[in-house]
Amino acid sequence: MTAPASKSDAQRALAAASLARGRSVISACTPCDDTDAALDVIGALGALVQRDGDVVTIDGWHRPPAARAHCGESGLALRMFAAIAALHNHDITLDGHGTLRGRPVGMIEDALRSCGVTCRSQSGFLPLVVRGPIRGGSVHVDGSVTSQHITGLLFALPLAAEDSELTVVRPVSRPYLRMTLRTLDAFDVHVDAAPDLSAFRIPSRQRYRPTACTVEGDWSGASALLVAGAIAGRVEVGNLDVESAQADRVILDVLRQSGARVRTGNRCVTVEQDALSAFEFDAEDAPDLVPALVALACCCRGTSRFRGTARLRRKESDRVRALLDMVQAIGGTAALDGDGLEVTGSPIRGGAIETRHDHRIAMAAAVAALRSTSGVVLDDPACVAKSYPAFFDDLHRLGAKP
């Protein structure tokens, strides 16, 4: 198999290209709903976007921004582009649909107001109206729930009128912040970061340099395929960089810990089934791995423990509740343990799964079905289009039966 493009990497590249005065070319940008949402937003904010297959050409700052930008269901697009929209000195309304409408925006408002931006929301939810220009200066933000609004500030503040000192309280998802810094560097924008990413010095009045770049393969989407190999046979997934800044490449360590056979080389990962034992996983920096790893835990001898899962309650669904229900629906055993989750391996019966329209729940349930006696029935398989539209086609190519 070939891993799809990382929507996290793609959206960052698209944001940077939209801020460069000139033409940038983004290659290997395979479509998914979240990446398409980012393309819509940068077009609304003034970029000229042309797509030819998996290659996207972007002319930044091509025209004045529109009054509204639609973020689809992408939390990253909303949190990142809210700060970028605040570079303009008139009202811009950011909106979305589906689950994004139910996700609070207070943390975005707090961060932007500390930079001199005017914000209005509907009692803490979308639509969100922002009005800049973003000022810079000394900025303190809460990073304990997500790093995505911090990524937005890191993109916008280099264009502010004042130098910035950005302090982040309790930062999580640090690998994603490192991915942001790598993207900024590729577009010739300079940010000095503390080793623990709790503080950033950001020179003002910088210019993004147009560039050509290639989107990485997605460790998040590939995690479901790699777990499939670990529990049900063998899989080889290409287009994966083991040196990537993506947080979810830590799945290699978890698979090895569980006893699966893992080989890497030439941007390719091979995972093969073996006797599997329980493992422990801290979700603080890689929460998106938890659904696939819960499917793995169902097939391991003993009880696997997941820590730091509170953040999963604020994803496309309440993923903690969704995963508990999923495991129980297929005949497995799972329980809450404080802010953690415990999953005890047992024979998987199968059953009907409510995906909550959450792409990662759908993929996890489909992978768990590979070890079930009667299969699973998903109420909304199409939700995988958010990140990995070809997931079920790829799973079928591996031998899974629809």
Keywords:
402 residues, alpha/beta, UDP-n-acetylglucosamine1-carboxyvinyl-transferase, Chain, 2 domains, 4-stranded mixed beta sheet, 31% helix, globular
* Record field, number of beta strands: 21
Q: How many helices in DSSP terms?
A: 12
- Strand fraction equals 15-25%
CATH architecture assignment of the largest domain: Alpha-beta prism
What kind of assembly state do the chains in view correspond to?
single chain
Please outline the major beta sheet.
4 strands, mixed
User: Structural class, please?
Assistant: alpha/beta
Instruction: For the record, give the distance between the C-alpha atoms at the N and C termini, rounded to a whole number.
Output: 18 Å
Q: What percent of the residues sit in helical stretches (DSSP H or I)?
A: 25-40%
Q: Walk across the major sheet and give the strand order.
A: 2-3-1-12
**What is the arithmetic mean of pLDDT?**
96
Can you tell me the CATH class of the largest domain? Alpha Beta
Going by CATH, what is the homologous superfamily of the largest domain?
Enolpyruvate transferase domain
Number of domains: 2
Rg from alpha-carbon coordinates:
21 Å
Descriptive notes:
The chain is α/β, with parallel strands linked by helices. It folds into 2 domains: 7-204, UDP-n-acetylglucosamine1-carboxyvinyl-transferase, Chain; 219-397, UDP-n-acetylglucosamine1-carboxyvinyl-transferase, Chain (Alpha-beta prism), CATH 3.65.10.10. Helices cover 31% and strands 23% of the residues. It contains 12 helices and 21 strands. The chain has helices at residues 7-18, 33-44, 75-85, 106-113, 148-156, 174-186, 219-232, 251-258, 290-297, 319-329, 359-368, 391-397; strands at residues 23-27, 48-52, 55-59, 68-70, 92-95, 118-122, 125-131, 137-142, 164-169, 192-193, 199-202, 212-214, 234-238, 261-265, 268-272, 280-282, 303-307, 333-337, 340-344, 351-353, 376-378. The strands form 6 sheets. Strands 2-3-1-12 form a 4-stranded mixed β-sheet, with helices on one face. The protein has a 4-stranded mixed β-sheet with strand order 4-5-7-6. A hairpin with a 2-residue loop joins strand 2 and strand 3. Helix 1 (7-18) packs across helix 6 (174-186) and helix 7 (219-232) packs parallel to helix 11. The longest helix is centred in the middle third of the chain and has 14 residues, at 219-232. The two termini are 18 Å apart. The model has no long low-confidence stretch (mean pLDDT 96).
